[in-house]
Amino acid sequence: MVKETIRVYARLKPLGRRQQAGIYSVDDETSASSLEITVPRDLADGFINNKRESYKFKFQKVFDQEAKQDVVFESIAKPVAECALAGYNGTIFAYGQTGSGKTFTITGGAERYSDRGIIPRTLSYIFDQLQKDNSKVYTTHVSYLEIYNECGYDLLDPRHEASRLEDLPRVTIMEDPDQNIHLKNLSLQQASNEEEALNLLFLGDTNRMIAETPMNQASTRSHCIFTIHISSKEPGSPTIRHSKLHLVDLAGSERVAKTGVGGHLLTEAKYINLSLHYLEQVIIALAEKNRSHIPYRNSMMTSVLRDSLGGNCMTTMIATLSIDKRNIEESISTCRFAQRVALIKNEAVLNEEIDPKLMIIQLKREIQELKDELALVTGKQRTSQLSQEELLQLDELIQIFLEDSDPESTLDVEADMRKIKYCFTYLKNHSKISDGKLLSHHICEEKDTSKEDGKEELKKMKELLQQRDNEINILVNMLKNERKKAQDALFQLSAASAGSTSLKQSHSTNLEESQNPSRFFSLKEAKDLSSSVHRLPFISRMKEGKMSLGCQEAFEVFKQDHADSITIKDNEHLLKQRYAEAKCLGEKINEVRNKINHLKGKITQRHIQRAALAVSNPSEVLDALDPVEEKLRSQIEEEKKSYDTMFNRLKGLKVEIEHLQLLMEKAKMKLQKEFEVWWTEEGANLQTQQEKTELVSSPNTTMVYPQFIKSSQHPLASSFSETTRANSNEDPSGRNNSIIFNNPSTKIRTSPSSSTSIPLTGDSQTDADILAFIKARQNILQKKGLGNK
Ligand code: ADP
Ligand code: MG
Predict the structure, then answer these.
(1) Cα 124 to ligand 2 centroid, rounded to whole Å
(2) 86: phi > 0 → left, psi -120 to 50 → alpha, else beta; which?
(3) Which spans in 563-626 are helix H?
(4) Residue range 79-86: average pLDDT?
(5) Distance 784 CA to ligand 2 centre (A)
């Protein structure tokens, strides 16, 4: 059992070019760091006299702006991952205002491989360790849960096309009689290696991104919990260890300042996200001594994280801070929250469970071994029952003993527990039996009845066993059917996207396979195919939308102007470089292998020569070491070393290439999604323009946009009414509290009506109209000197 307080770290996000730094200082001591934030005069001036100007907070460590992802992983996540491997539960959660770097810290940045966050690095570390440890059998699963507006969604269900959050399977909480929390409908996906786990992470992140709309702002308002489940067992041991590692990206912690008389900037303000308010309530209750009731049940998030907060878990918090001047009050709020969290003590215990079946097997084996040992010592094979003959002999001995009047007489029955027990039973019963009937008979009768009982018991057990077998058969059939269904669905999807390419190729990544450079690339292709299965929902959506020519042209224009296209191009360039490097390394590895084989051949030749020499010239002493062979051997050693170095580099490159591919895929999807929104808006603008034209019927407008005067029944109109209906289910609090953040990617999302993703019109005439409209408007704007978009 490990009892310790929750570890609390702070991480400061690097300032943007136009941001002005707030005044702060970091004081690093050996065991802890402190962060001092000074409120600038202009803010503090408005305060009542006793308000402090400078606030100091203690943390386990403060990561200043320049801290890199690998350092953050090493100090924060690696120790927790180690505990999870040893069988303890662990949680790492990031808390901070929107834009302070929670997602960057937990998942990672979307641009560079070196920006990989805690989740991919932890997966990589865990699978690396598992591979090294041969003493246990491990199984790993992952799950990915998003909680938005008190509803849980499974981000990892491959059967669902996620175009909206509501399309994902709903996850609900169940509590068993022991008050353990179970998440119903949250799928646990097995991941037997790093690659499979990363693909699942990618699938979840994609679902998360696609499901987000400007209206629900899911990424800032929802909590995401990625969980790695590890089970381990030593071969032959009945003990199984289970541990869970939660990696949590919480909703933005921004608050609205209390308004009203005397309301000041630095007074505690209300959270925008209600569940974070409940999280704080739980933290306050836990930090207070002698509190018996902790209000975990108030929100789904606190219920799910119950064990992580004040339970059986090693928990770590990362307070992410955006330290620019405008965010000082939020940063102070975040630090205050962190200080409260730091007071909570958790008790982590090893989660061990004994498998009763294995226990029985083990005990039986032990009994047999003891019996064998006993037989060896006594020289007699023993059964659990005494034989009829032995019983009669014993009866006789007891009779003699009882009838012997000598007080010194003894009853000698050898060191045999069965006989000793029999004697005691005899004496006990004998004192009750008055007719002097021999006990052996009595016991024999008893044995018969107990035999009857035993038969009855055996029959019952057999029936029970049969029943269990039937149940298992039914379950196995159900599982088979489910798997078949899933495979069929996947196959259909893949046929739609990848044409006739077969998907049955395996994509395991064992060392043997990747040692061969040509296999390395075929593996990559197989992976591409397999991951295209995960990415299908989006791609198929685009295909179904059937981009018309006009729409395609607009997409090209949109792509050129988009900020992310530079990143995509850069990554494409980098990917090409890496491919080339990997190819070159593959060739070199091949060369080295050929060289080693050649050297081996030489050694064999040398052996043959020396053997022949020994036959033709037996007087020569051939025992001495052959210097030529020694030299060849040391050459092989050298080559092997360079082979290992190159091979390890190739392995690293493979991981990097896969990561880059995922990053690019994600960026492309984001681009397409944003294009859809933009395109739909342009369609709406066009429609407004048409209506205006019809109403005003101005000759000027008619001249500029003659082609737009068409039927008012625009195809887009129907999609809009649908969208509005879908949004009427929105939680009103979500809408009222809507905030506009300075996220560059949302700059085009100005129209609230484009909340859910509307498929491209697919009507080539309409698309051409929209394109013409955009172009015409751009021309006008350029003439007016206002630039485009
Ligand atoms: P949050 O999830 O808290 O809303 P993000 O993680 O999305 O914030 O970060 C906002 C932006 O700042 C992103 O573009 C991200 O790449 C960038 N960012 C955050 N932290 C860092 C950091 N430590 N180094 C570089 N960029 C960062
Ligand atoms: Mg985020």
Answers:
(1) 22
(2) alpha
(3) 564-616
(4) 95
(5) 39
Task: Tell me the C-alpha to C-alpha distance, in Å, between residue 544 and each of 48, 492, 560, 761.
Answer: 62, 14, 24, 10
Among candidate residues 172, 181, 114, 178, the one with its CA nearest the CA of residue 145: 172
Percent residues over pLDDT 90 in the chain: 28
Supply φ then ψ for residue 435, to 5 degrees: -80, 0
pLDDT of 304 reads 93
Ligand 1 in reach of 158 Cβ (< 6 A) = no
Residue 675 CB neighbours (<10 A): 21
Which position has the token pair 């570890």? 7
Q: How far apart are CA 404 and CA 410, in angstroms?
A: 9
Per-residue model confidence as pLDDT tens digits over 223-251: 999 999 999 999 888 899 999 999 999 99
Residue-wise pLDDT for 388-444, tens only, equals: 888 888 888 898 888 888 888 888 887 788 888 888 888 888 776 555 454 455 555
Give the Cα separation of 375 and 389 in Å (integer): 19
- Indicate whether 755 pLDDT > 70: no
Look at 654 and 709; give whichever has higher pLDDT: 654
Q: What is the DSSP string of 126-180?
A: HHHHHHH--SSEEEEEEEEEEEETTEEEETT-TT---SSGGGSPEEEEEE-TT--
Measured in degrees and rounded to the nearest 5, phi and psi for residue 364 equal: -60, -40
Q: CA-to-CA distance for 276 and 272, rounded, in angstroms?
A: 8
**What are the backbone angles phi and psi of residue 230, rounded to the nearest 5°?**
-120, 130
Report whether pLDDT(186) > 70.
yes
Cα-Cα-Cα-Cα dihedral of 549, 550, 553, 559, to 10°? -120
What mean pLDDT is reported for the chain?
77
Is 96 touching ligand 1 by the criterion CB < 6 Å?
yes
The strand pairing partners of 168, in sequence order, are none
Q: Within its chain, how far is the Cα of 399 from the centroid? A: 74
User: What is the Cα–Cα distance from 442 to 627, expressed in whole angstroms?
Assistant: 88
User: To test ligand 1's pocket by mutation, which of 9, 12, 13 has the most ligand atoms within 8 angstroms of CB?
Assistant: 13
CB within 8 Å of 120: residues ≥ 6 apart: 107, 108, 198, 201, 659
Look up residue 28 and give its two tokens. Answer: 């690093």
Ligand 1 atom index nearest CA of 94: 3
pLDDT of residue 669: 85
**pLDDT for the residue numbered 204:** 92
Most confident segment among 329-333, 706-710, 743-747: 329-333
What residue has token string 């292709």?
525
CA–CA separation, 608 vs 218, rounded Å? 73
Residue 539: per-residue pLDDT:
40
Measured in Å, residue 14 CA sits from the centre of ligand 1 at 9
Q: How far apart (Å, rounded) are the C-alpha atoms in residues 731 and 736?
A: 9
Rounded to whole angstroms, how far apart are CA atoms 509 and 505? 12
> Strands, DSSP E only, in 50-102?
54-59, 61-63, 90-95
